[in-house]
Amino acid sequence: MKKGRLIVLTICVVMVGFTNAFAQSKKEKIGVLTKKVDSLEKVLSVKNEGMVQLQVKLAKLEGTRDAHNEEIKRLEDKNDSLKEALITRNITIEAQSSKIAQLNKDISGLQAQQKEWTSKNDALNAELSSIKQKSDDAGATTVKDSVKDTKSTVAPKEGEKAGTTTTGNKSDPIVKN
Fold it and tell me: What is the mean pLDDT of each run of 10 residues along the chain (177 residues)?
């Protein structure tokens, strides 16, 4: 039995040795795994911080994008209103251009009419002056004779002086010989 006990004891010692070695190995593995977990937690923490910073940047960019979209919308609306104003003004310009063309045409007609009237006026003035000149030359004696005839036949009206005749609203002195 001594031999059996020795074998059992040897087996126990070997088992304790294996257990110790195995326990030592487990402790080392746990230590290594703990270090790995710690380093992974640090990496994860850094990545989380980076993710938070990226989310903040994304939020800022989204806010900027929204502000730019609003500005773009406002500028597009302004552009549309300016286009409408330009179209309206172009229509007004076209209408004014047609009015100007019509007025220029009217001016040309009026200038032609003015030239025609000026030439007719000049012709009438020339004819009038030639008639006056003829009447002055030939009519000087006849006017004196007709004045003498009217004196003897026409009596002055009340309120008129003798020696004047009334024609319309004018009083012309009669030429006396």
Answer: 76 75 72 87 92 94 95 96 96 96 95 95 94 79 50 47 46 46
The pair of three-digit structure tokens given for residue 23, joined into one six-digit string: 């326990």
Distant-in-sequence, close-in-space partners of 162: CB < 8 Å, separation ≥ 6: 156
The answer, as to whether pTM is greater than 0.70, is no
Instruction: Using alpha carbons, select from 176, 108, 106, 167 the residue that is nearest to residue 148.
Output: 176
The string over 65-93, giving b where at least 16 C-beta atoms fall within 10 Å of a residue's C-beta and e elsewhere, is: eeeeeeeeeeeeeeeeeeeeeeeeeeeee
Cα 55 from Cα 49, distance rounded (Å): 10
**Alpha-carbon torsion (129, 132, 138, 141), positive or negative:** negative
Write down the residue that tokens 């003035």 correspond to.
125
Q: Which residue has the tokens 């806010």?
A: 63
